[in-house]
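#structure-requests
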Amino acid sequence: MVTGAVTKDTSATETHLSWAADEKAKSWIVHHDSGSGKPEDATIMHYVEKPELVFNDELFGGTLAGTTINFYIQAFNEVFEGKDEIEKAQNANTHGYGSEWTKALKVEFADKKVAKK
């Protein structure tokens, strides 16, 4: 089970997610939605082997500014193979037995303000 999930240093373009590492956990999947707040909409997955993730515009595949994203974290007691973190997440989701998901960790990314002249 994942506990202590927090975000820090959130800006319009990124946030730093971290959580307490259970002694048995060897990998995690960070699931997220695009702001619906419904776990069933959290279909995008990121695989990590440390209890942290820097989530930014590049990882999101677009602009985070002005959006709200709900994150859900799941722990696994094994590591998974794959050519990249997306394939590893898919393998974990298909072949692994993960913990329950955390409650939603809601992150609001600020709008980028344009300075007036």
